[in-house]
Amino acid sequence: MAVGRGLEEITLQKGIECVVLERAEFVSTTGAAIGIYTNGWRALDQLGIATQLRHKAIPIKAKEELRCLKRSDLIQILADSLPLNTIRFGCHILAAKLDLLTSQPLLQLQDGSVIKSKVLIGCDGVNSVVSKLIGLKATRLFSSCGTSGFTSYPSGHGSSNEFIRMRRGNLLLGRMPVDDNLVYWFVGRPWTPSDSRVSKEPELIKRATVESIMDFPTEIVEMVKNSDLDSLTLTNLRYRAPWDILL
């Protein structure tokens, strides 16, 4: 049994009989896009969905295969490739514990039901109930945040098919084309106290991001100004040190 419905968790289902418990009522995803390099495409080839996904994104100039996929496309195609009823939607897990007699995982759901599992895989994010079960330390907040989004160009973006990265002081900006009409971009910068409020409003995210990159080239500033509001996210980055997962 797997908790959550992230990229890792859906990938685990291929070839393994498993039930996925998902809190949402439908297939959804967070984040705009993901860059996939050669090793990732090898895995997708093994899963039998690489050809379908390659039609969703153009190749980016690099020393190895690199394409930028919309996360929604990747999640949907992965989910569609699973057997029917593998994902159970609307399952809000309150807690996980071990059965005192069998040592098997027990999951307590919000609706009052309890599910027993032989094997439990946790892919349920930074507030994971599974990580609490196995005693992992909580993630720590970085002093940085990440903003990302899409910008659409109905007549074509006209940019080279390259992964461009620019730095100005403590700001990092990246841009990758998804296809001939859509560009994915991200900005990394220091977190500020006002970002807790800004992160809830796409218009404020756009305004704050534009203000932070005014020293960048005009075409970059215009790209963010013209970004698709529905795609914008601002997240305070979190971190779990590798040694914190040693049990």
Automatic annotation (TrEMBL):
The entry's keywords: Monooxygenase, Oxidoreductase
Gene Ontology MF terms in the entry: monooxygenase activity
Domain of life: Eukaryota
SUPFAM superfamilies the UniProt entry points to: FAD/NAD(P)-binding domain (SSF51905)
InterPro entries reported in the protein's UniProt record: FAD/NAD-bd_sf (IPR036188), MOase (IPR044560)
Protein name (database record): Monooxygenase
Organism: Macleaya cordata (Five-seeded plume-poppy)
